[in-house]
From TrEMBL, chain A:
SUPFAM superfamilies: WD40 repeat-like (SSF50978). This is Swd3 protein. The keyword Repeat applies. WD repeats lie at residues 97-138, 139-181, 197-231. Keywords: Repeat, WD repeat. Pfam families: WD40. Coiled coil: none annotated. One of its GO terms (cellular component) is Set1C/COMPASS complex. GO terms for molecular function: histone binding. The keyword Repeat applies. PANTHER family: WD REPEAT DOMAIN 5B (PTHR22847:SF637), WD40 REPEAT PROTEIN (PTHR22847).
UniProtKB/TrEMBL annotation, chain B:
Residues 391-417 are annotated as: Disordered. Residues 401-415 have a biased composition (Basic and acidic residues). It is found in: Nucleus. It comes from Maudiozyma humilis (Sour dough yeast). One of its GO terms (cellular component) is Set1C/COMPASS complex. InterPro entries: RBBP5/Swd1, WD40/YVTN_repeat-like_dom_sf, WD40_repeat_CS, WD40_repeat_dom_sf, WD40_rpt. Keywords: Nucleus, Repeat, WD repeat. This is COMPASS subunit protein. The keyword Coiled coil does not apply.
Length: 324, 450
């Protein structure tokens, strides 16, 4: 069961509702980064208190934030078509990366932290050198905004992308060649056309890909064989406007006890988070955040889950494995 | 993982085929060494600095030994490099007699120090150091053991660092001088890839010796085993200088490059503590009578052998197949003589340094993009196919077929899946290890921005 540990305050000026986009837990699990306008709030996950506010050089809102694997920097994707890299602890803003011609939507580092991948409304994916801020490669293989990209934390040789054109593609992150397209006609050509993909996320061993589409269905794809191995859906069919967040959860257990099975969490537009056992597809928990607004982002680290609603309510949960 | 999704015929090549990259730098590279995971390439330079490149960006991630007044650094060309097994430490030997051990994690420990960090340890000899190898990688207490061959010394030197950080020196010999005739100077020392505490040395008069150092060697010698060395094998396969010794990763094959213009390939048989060598092949350039600059085996059992020929007219690398001893490939593309080389098995690349320019040339596999991956219902064909419509081609698919497909999909939904366990070996059979990640030097990129 997920239990609420704290609800960090997202400050905003009185009378306005903040528009939030992402809440990401740092690689060591101690902090959570939440972009707010052109700032990034660094919040302690232990007690929810605000640790630091980073001012970025962006001129419009930030739509995604990503921690570098060493936990030193955050990269920010902004609507001003640029990507920023900010050193959290010492040096402040390091780079602003220009090259995209439309708002940047999603970011991901490789496992060594020396490459940054960004995807944009301009339908391309760009690869940047983190140290000197130069553009290394542009991958153009989608025909609609690329809303989500992901690289496995352990094996950065592949990159997955999901786009509003309904395609999930897997690329070789070094050459930029497309290796596989995970779609089959039956599935993505529904009656009313293509179902846009809203989020992709690799499993820990990079062999499976968790995919959420805007019809609210979450699927686990086998990347090698290219077929769906789990379909997780809630009872009502939805036509989502927002991605609503999803992630794998790998609950931490006693080293002596057998490892717990991974879970999948997914949010909906009415402030609820659903949690499934990925093996049995059993719905384990239907968690109500208490806010009837769309969940905009879910990010998990070990047993910790951060949930952010569109109107800026952040909640941190902890998974405790109780007797079923 | 990317290799699993690529064309198996393009990926499962036994050796690199074409020049894929050239690393140019104002510092002239004299020797190269790939990190154990293949993600970094270290270059020793004629100016004394050691540059570590990230292979994916082709740019330096660390430049070691360039800071002013931050501990000792090489003032003469770097002679050889060796990575520790975990990829965290790098060993460099210079013609100035310095042997330096660099801890690549140092940037994370003192942020802000930037490039002015000195080496973790240094040993100054009174003569150039030919080469060195790791006998025992750094333990958690920071202790390690290194064997080095130094100019005009009759035995290799064993350097061991204890947990307090003091480096002890002892000669690597086991009463050789008493029993044998003069073996000349030790020119080469390499660690055995499987028996990790075994060091193989080659001398200027063609002698080759296998020493076991460390704890197992001392078992017979009783208490106080520290620094004990036992001789496992000694022979004289050639009468001239042994310039290089390469051992295949499986530890069953050895190549000796000697100045009599030939490379001898020998099989190593290991029975308890007895080592025997038997000659398998001898590689020579019979027409030009070339010497060889460097030699290296391919992965696993060493099915291939690559060597760089000496001489201003030779600009290629020669690659032999070791079972039959025939030349299978000449790696072209460089326009100068090639010196030091290294083979990365995980990345399937060979790097070699150019003698004149000091550039680093890298041969690899050029995997062609698979266009059919962009559209799963398209098929790549070698040549045009005469299209003939099948009788049932546009029939509405039978319900039985559809049912089978849905059944198959439903079955897949019930199969257990493993999201966590990773493969132990990659498609080429190399062990998958999470290599050490060199911390990024953010201070340097701030300095550049100012």
């Amino acid at each position: 069961m997920f239990t609420l540990t704290c609800s960090p305050e997202v400050p905003h000026s009185a009378g306005t509702t903040p528009s939030c986009s992402a809440a990401k837990v740092s690689p060591n699990g101690q902090f959570c980064a939440i972009p707010l306008d052109t700032r990034v709030l660094i919040i302690e996950t232990q007690n929810g208190s605000l640790h630091k506010t980073l001012q970025t050089q962006h001129t419009s809102g930030i739509s995604d934030v990503c921690w570098s694997p060493d936990g030193q920097c955050v990269a920010t994707a902004s609507d001003d078509c640029s990507v920023g890299i900010t050193h959290v602890w010492l040096y402040g803003p390091l780079h602003r990366l220009f090259g995209h011609t439309a708002p940047v939507l999603s970011l991901c580092y490789n496992s060594r932290g020396n490459l940054l991948f960004s995807s944009s409304m301009d339908e391309s994916i760009k690869i940047w050198d983190v140290l000197n801020g130069s553009l290394i490669k542009t991958i153009s293989a989608h025909s609609d905004p690329v809303v989500s990209i992901d690289l496995p934390a352990l094996d950065s040789s592949v990159l997955a992308s999901g786009s509003y054109d309904g395609l999930i593609r897997i690329f070789d992150s070094h050459t930029g060649h497309c290796l596989k397209t995970l779609t089959y006609d039956k599935d993505w050509k529904s009656e009313d056309g293509v179902v846009p993909i809203s989020q992709v996320k690799f499993s820990r061993n990079a062999k499976f890909l968790l995919v959420k589409s805007l019809d609210g269905v979450v699927k686990v794809w086998d990347c090698i064989r290219g077929d769906v191995v789990r379909t997780l859906r809630t009872e009502e069919t939805a036509h989502l406007t927002y991605s609503c967040g999803m992630d794998f959860v790998y609950p931490e257990s006693d080293p002596s006890a057998p490892p717990l099975t991974p879970l999948v969490v997914s949010g909906d537009e009415h402030g609820k988070v659903f949690c499934w056992d990925v093996q049995t597809k059993k719905l384990l928990q239907e968690l109500d955040t208490g806010f009837a607004t769309p969940i905009i982002s879910i990010d998990c680290h070990g047993s910790l889950m951060s949930v952010l609603t569109l109107d800026g309510h952040c909640q941190l949960y902890k998974w405790e494995h109780g007797p079923q | 993982m990317n290799l699993l999704l690529q064309d198996p015929f393009a990926v499962l090549k036994e050796f690199p085929e074409r020049l894929v990259a050239t690393l140019r730098s104002p510092l002239q590279a004299t020797c190269v060494a790939y990190a154990p995971g293949g993600e970094y390439l270290a270059c020793g330079t004629a100016q004394g600095a050691v540059v570590v490149y990230a292979r994916d960006t082709q740019r330096p991630v660390q430049v070691l030994g360039q800071g002013a007044g931050a501990g000792p650094c090489h003032v003469r060309p770097v002679q050889s490099l060796a990575w520790s097994r975990d990829g965290r430490r790098l060993l460099s030997c210079g013609q100035d007699g310095l042997l330096l051990v660099w801890d690549l994690a140092a940037a994370a420990r003192d942020p802000g120090q930037g490039q002015d960090r000195g080496p973790e340890a240094h040993v100054q000899f009174d003569a150039p150091v030919w080469g060195a190898c790791w006998v025992e990688g750094a333990g958690s207490d920071g202790s390690w053991c290194i064997a080095a061959s130094v100019y005009e010394r009759g035995s290799a030197v064993l350097l061991s660092r204890d947990s307090e950080g003091t480096v002890h020196q002892s000669p690597l010999d086991a009463d050789l001088s008493a029993t044998e005739e003069d073996q000349g100077y030790v020119l080469v020392c390499v660690a055995h890839p499987v028996h990790r505490d075994v060091v193989v040395t080659g001398s200027s008069r063609g002698y080759i010796n296998f020493f076991r150092c460390g704890q197992r060697a001392g078992e017979g010698a009783g208490a106080g085993a520290d620094g004990a060395v036992s001789l496992l094998h000694g022979s004289r396969p050639t009468t001239s200088n042994i310039k290089h010794i390469a051992i295949a990763p499986s530890g069953e094959r050895l190549a000796i490059n000697s100045s009599d213009r030939s490379i001898r390939q020998m099989a190593i048989t290991w029975e308890n503590e007895n080592v025997a060598l038997s000659l398998e092949h001898k590689y020579q350039d019979v027409i030009n009578r070339l010497q060889w600059n460097d030699v290296q085996f391919s992965s696993h059992g060493g099915d291939y052998l690559v060597a760089s020929p000496h001489g201003s007219s030779a600009h290629d690398l020669y690659l032999w197949e070791t079972a039959g001893g025939s030349l299978v490939r000449v790696l072209e593309g460089a326009d100068e003589e090639l010196m030091g080389l290294d083979w990365s098995f995980r990345a399937m690349t060979i790097a070699a340094t150019g003698l004149e320019s000091g550039d680093v040339y890298e041969w690899g596999l050029a995997v062609q993009p698979k266009w059919s991956a962009l559209a799963p219902d398209f098929e790549e064909i070698e040549e045009n196919i005469d299209y003939r419509e099948h009788e049932d081609e546009f029939d509405v698919t039978s319900s039985a077929q559809e049912r089978r497909a849905t059944e198959r999909a439903a079955r897949r939904e019930g199969e257990p899946i493993d999201l966590v366990t990773t493969d132990e070996r990659d498609v080429r059979g190399n062990e998958v290890v999470q290599g050490f990640v060199i911390p990024l030097d953010y201070a340097a990129c701030v300095a550049r921005g100012v």
